Amino acid sequence: MDLKQILLSDIDLSSQRHDRFLFSYARDLSVTMGSIKKVGLINPVILNLNHGRNEVYTIVCGYQRIKAFKKLGEERIKANVVEGLSDEELSLLSLHDNMFSRGFNETEKAIVIKRFQEIGYSYDRLISEITPLLGIPPNKKIIDKYLSLLKLDRGIKSAVARNELELEKAFLLIMLDNAERDFACRILFKESSMNINEAKETIRNLLDLRQIRHKSISELLTAEEISNILSDGKTNKRQKGETIYKLIKSMRYPTISRKEDEFTKSCKGLGLDNNVRITHSRFFEGDDIQITIKASDEEKLRSSMEKFLANIKNGAFKRIFSVFR
Q1: Do 203 and 184 touch, CB atoms closer than 8 A?
Q2: CB 1 within 8 A of CB 82
Q3: Cα Rg for the chain, rounded, in angstroms?
Q4: pLDDT truncated to tens, each residue of the chain (325 aa)?
Q5: Residue among 82, 104, 91, 75 at smallest CA distance from 8
Q6: 293: helix, coil or strand?
Q7: Can you tell me whether residue 274 is helix, strand or coil?
Q8: Going by C-beta distance under 8 Å and a sequence separation of 6 or more, which residues neighbour residue 253?
Q9: Residue 18: which of 65, 66, 57 has the closest Cα?
Q10: Second label for 257, Cα 20 to 30 Å away, from 44, 74, 185, 324?
Q11: Collapsing DSSP states into helix, strand and coil, what is residue 5?
Q12: Which domains are seen in the chain, by residue range?
């Protein structure tokens, strides 16, 4: 490398492929500008000299620093200049420089994978050479998920990059159409909060309801019942998420949801403590129940058993079994 002071006007910032070594996404330029104002440029940028007409420089590492210098009104920037390297070598140089200087957010990891795939890396090479550097599981399906992340709207990709949206939740949005993603992201993940399993089931139920009711997911999510849940000032986001999850489940499976409510109400009517759990088969496919008792001594076990016998004698369990019919 050759360390030089380079005119910003000699650096390519607008050609069609000027950003082919750029891996950064949704970075705050004001942070870089503030650092430069305070302590100056600590690490020189890396540029590739393109021989030929005008001999302009291509950025290999340091897009943010160059943009910050330009915005601050500077004319020159200190740079390490390289020549004669292939696109693959320059991409690897950018990868390692960024990896050791600042690391990558999840959206940037997807950009890295796509870049090396475009260079010609097979899945085997991506798995053996690239994913270990990014901390991504060495799995083809995971790689495909990261690549699909780049197809999402800019707002969603930015939310993932800033850790405002969990990566797994963003992956779930891939199943939706472009017009429906914003609604789903806003209502399921921003204005309310669901865990991954709830969100996965909710999105699948919404896709089914779209076919059954011939309504778009946007229409389903803007229904009055959901608007009322979101506007309830007495509940937090997590409670709103749980309520919306149950509502959409009841819309998709009304009979099962009715049985679920009856079953829960009947179990509460037994007056048992928290050490006793009664569960039913998945989707009420069977007609049996499972009872789990936690007891730390014989006295607590005896007390639970006596309550069970009393409920059997007074017919309370008949109400529970009637739900299956």
Answers
A1: yes
A2: yes
A3: 29
A4: 688 999 999 999 988 888 899 999 988 899 999 999 999 998 899 999 987 656 789 999 999 999 999 999 999 999 999 998 999 999 999 999 988 888 899 999 999 999 999 999 999 999 999 999 999 999 999 999 999 999 998 999 999 999 999 999 999 999 898 888 988 999 999 999 999 999 999 999 999 999 999 999 999 999 999 999 999 999 999 999 999 999 999 999 887 777 777 788 888 888 888 888 888 887 777 788 888 988 888 888 888 888 888 888 888 888 888 877 7
A5: 75
A6: strand
A7: coil
A8: 205, 283
A9: 57
A10: 185
A11: strand
A12: 1-103 (3.90.1530.10), 175-252 (no CATH), 259-322 (no CATH)
Q: Which amino acid appears at position 126 of this protein?
A: L
Kindly state the DSSP code that residue 48 receives in the 8-state scheme. Answer: E
Place of tokens 């005896």: 302
Amino acid at 22: L
Report how far apart, in Å, the C-alpha atoms of 11 and of each of 40, 58, 64, 155 are. 20, 6, 13, 29
- Count of residues in the chain: 325
Closest CA to 143 of 102, 172, 110: 110
Q: What is the pTM of this model?
A: 0.77
Pairwise CA distance, residues 62 & 175, whole Å: 35
* Region label for 107, one of left (φ > 0), alpha (ψ between -120 and 50) or beta (otherwise): alpha
Whole-angstrom Cα distance, residue 44 to residue 23? 17
Residue 158 φ then ψ, to 5°: -65, -40
Side-chain-side CA neighbours of residue 131 (13 Å) = 21
* Displacement of CA 163 from its chain's centroid (Å): 8
* Phi and psi torsions of 60, nearest 5°: -100, -50
- CA within 13 Å, CB half, 308: 13
Rounded to 10 deg, the angle between the 154-161 and 106-119 helix axes is 110
Cβ contact 61:21 at 8 Å: yes
Exposure string for 196-207, b = 16+ CB within 10 A, e = fewer = eebbbebbebbe
